[in-house]
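Hi R.,

As promised on Friday, here is the backbone we talked about, encoded as structure tokens. Could you run it through your design pipeline when you get a chance and send me back a sequence?
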């Protein structure tokens, strides 16, 4: 307190009685990065503020924790620059400590991805190729000639035509069969059934009588 009032031993102090509003919010700035070593700083500060009756913006308060002195500057108080902290419900916030530097964030190493192959140079190969496999001999010997299938031309590939009338939830079975042409009606005389119209055969030839 004497340090905040810039007093020395034997100095003259003039005291005036005032009424202060009850504190609702206060913000503190630790004067050393060592304050970050405290596990629960709000609980430590709450316990230390029981020894104080009021706070004023710009003052520096000192708290004793684990046989070490930590200084904190009062950066902001609400609802006034000077507030009473006796029997109050006050929200506490902390500013970055004086001289604190954020640790550098190292970007994780990313492995180089393989360059995607350009498929535009590949010849479109869709459909069935007859006899495109390699041949085998019965005696087990390998044939020296390798099959060399002729590549298909892009113009020979048939592509499907989209169905623009497609409706969700319906299945359409498309068949490539064509309707057969009507057969020419045959003559009724050829198709009409005639009983006993075949020729007879005899096992022996009949001779003529003299």
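Update: got your reply. Pasting your designed sequence below so it's all in one thread:
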């Amino acid at each position: 307190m004497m340090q905040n009032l810039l007093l020395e031993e034997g100095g003259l102090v003039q005291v005036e009685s005032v009424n202060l509003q009850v504190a609702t919010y206060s913000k503190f700035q630790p004067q050393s990065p060592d304050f970050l070593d405290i596990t629960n700083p709000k609980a430590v500060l709450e316990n230390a503020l029981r020894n104080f009756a009021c706070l004023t913006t710009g003052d520096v308060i000192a708290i004793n924790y684990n046989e070490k002195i930590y200084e904190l500057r009062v950066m902001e108080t609400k609802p006034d620059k000077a507030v009473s902290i006796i029997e109050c419900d006050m929200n506490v916030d902390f500013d970055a400590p004086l001289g604190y530097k954020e640790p550098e964030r190292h970007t994780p190493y990313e492995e180089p991805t393989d360059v995607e192959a350009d498929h535009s140079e590949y010849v479109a190969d869709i459909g069935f190729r007859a006899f495109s496999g390699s041949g085998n001999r019965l005696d087990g010997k390998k044939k020296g000639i390798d099959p060399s299938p002729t590549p298909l031309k892009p113009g020979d590939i048939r592509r499907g035509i989209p169905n623009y009338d497609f409706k969700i939830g319906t299945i359409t079975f498309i068949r490539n069969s064509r309707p057969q042409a009507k057969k020419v009606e045959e003559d009724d005389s050829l198709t009409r059934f005639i009983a006993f119209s075949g020729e007879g055969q005899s096992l022996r030839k009949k001779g003529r009588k003299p």
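One thing I noticed while checking it: Residues 121-125 have pLDDT under 50 and may be disordered.

Thanks again,
M.
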